[in-house]
Design brief:
260 residues, six-stranded antiparallel beta barrel, four-stranded antiparallel sheet, 2 helices, 14 strands, 31% strand, elongated
């Protein structure tokens, strides 16, 4: 840490003779702002994959491409997923009709029971049939929603405005296990950098999440914000400063961080 000490000595009055008391010396110590060496790194870097099993049919982007949030990045072969939706919808239509029929039958039996024409056992049977129809209908509605969700998850979309860093996946890649699926794309935020610096234990004092920080890039000052302070060994910490991505900057660029 750079430290500059300025000592100002002021002597009052005229020249003094021997035996006269000397004028007290007034000292002022000014400490400059510390500039920490840091490096620009990708913000929000993440490896993307697909949460469902299948065969990749298309990958829509290349490494280095910038995409908007929600853009289609890759997709599995949709045949099985669409068939699952169609099958669940067909069952839903059938059970909807069965539930409506059971409801009409129950209404008719209740009317007959009120006129003492139908027995209690008939009313109980109609009530049970209608309850089963409702249960089956609810379960099938859940199946339809599940099938629709699987179809949605067969497509990989950008979770935020991003730049594609790498494309390890290719069409034909088989996604088999949802526990350890293969990486399809690596992305990072396209509008933001992280300026990263390692702090000594004494330098972490007073650092607050969300606080404003100046970042010096190629002689220009940029406003950043403390994003994270990650504990390292021996009391040190990794400081992450988020700042807007500007033209002419690049990952790995040396910058300076000024802690206020």
């Amino acid at each position: 840490m750079m430290l500059r000490i300025l000592v100002l000595a002021l002597l009052a009055g005229n020249a003094f003779s021997a035996g006269e008391p000397t004028t007290p010396v007034i000292a002022s110590v000014v400490t400059s702002v510390a500039t920490l060496p840091a490096v620009l790194d990708w913000s929000g870097r993440v490896n993307l994959t697909l949460p469902v099993a299948g065969v990749i049919e298309r990958i829509e982007v290349q490494a280095g491409e910038v995409v908007k949030k929600g853009a289609l990045l890759a997709s599995l072969n949709p045949t099985l997923f669409r068939a699952g939706v169609a099958e669940a919808r067909a069952d839903l239509d059938r059970l909807t009709q069965e539930e409506a029929d059971a409801a009409r039958d129950l209404g008719r039996v209740k009317e007959l029971y009120a006129r003492t024409v139908a027995a209690t056992s008939e009313l109980d049977a109609a009530t049970l049939r209608q309850a089963r129809a409702q249960t089956g209908l609810a379960a099938t509605q859940a199946r339809v929603e599940k099938a629709r969700r699987l179809l949605v998850e067969s497509e990989l979309r950008a979770p935020f405005d991003a730049v594609v860093l790498a494309r390890p996946g290719e069409p034909g890649l088989v996604i088999t296990s949802p526990c350890q699926p293969a990486t399809v794309l690596s992305i990072a935020r396209s509008e933001e950098w992280l300026a990263r610096a390692t702090l000594e234990p004494q330098q972490t004092v007073g650092v607050r999440l969300g606080a404003g920080v100046d970042v010096l890039i190629a002689g220009e000052r940029w406003q950043g914000q403390v994003r994270a302070l990650t504990a390292l060994a021996e009391g040190r910490a990794l400081l992450d400063i988020a700042l807007p991505r500007a033209a002419g900057t690049y990952a790995g660029q040396s910058v300076g961080i000024r802690l206020h």
